[in-house]
Amino acid sequence: MATAPEPTDEGVKLREVEGHTLAAIRYSGLWSQANDAEHFEQLSAALRAAKLTWAGAPVVARYNGPWTPWFLRRNELWLSLP
Question: What backbone torsions phi and psi does residue 27 show, to the nearest 5 degrees?
Fold first, then answer.
């Protein structure tokens, strides 16, 4: 944190997060519950096939603004592994 650059937007806050292990799936497309649910099913099926469990609710990470064309948007869905 001591060497992190200061945010130029006062809406951006820096915080420390304890390290943990995640399973993630990356996908593009519109932000919709249907798209998120489809990729949750893909990720959870892959984890079940690998005999891995997850804890808690999925987290959706969105990396582009709403003006970005749907096919260029980068999204991720994360599941926390115990």
Answer: -155, 160
80, 42 in Cβ contact below 8 A? no
Is 66 exposed, middle or buried, given 0-12, 13-18 or 19+ CB atoms closer than 10 A?
Answer: exposed
In terms of pTM, does the model score above 0.90? no
pLDDT in tens, 19-43: 999 999 999 998 899 999 999 999 9
Other CB atoms within 10 Å distance of the CB of residue 24: 12
User: By the 8 A CB rule, do 58 and 40 touch?
Assistant: yes
Is the Cβ–Cβ distance between 62 and 39 less than 8 Å? no
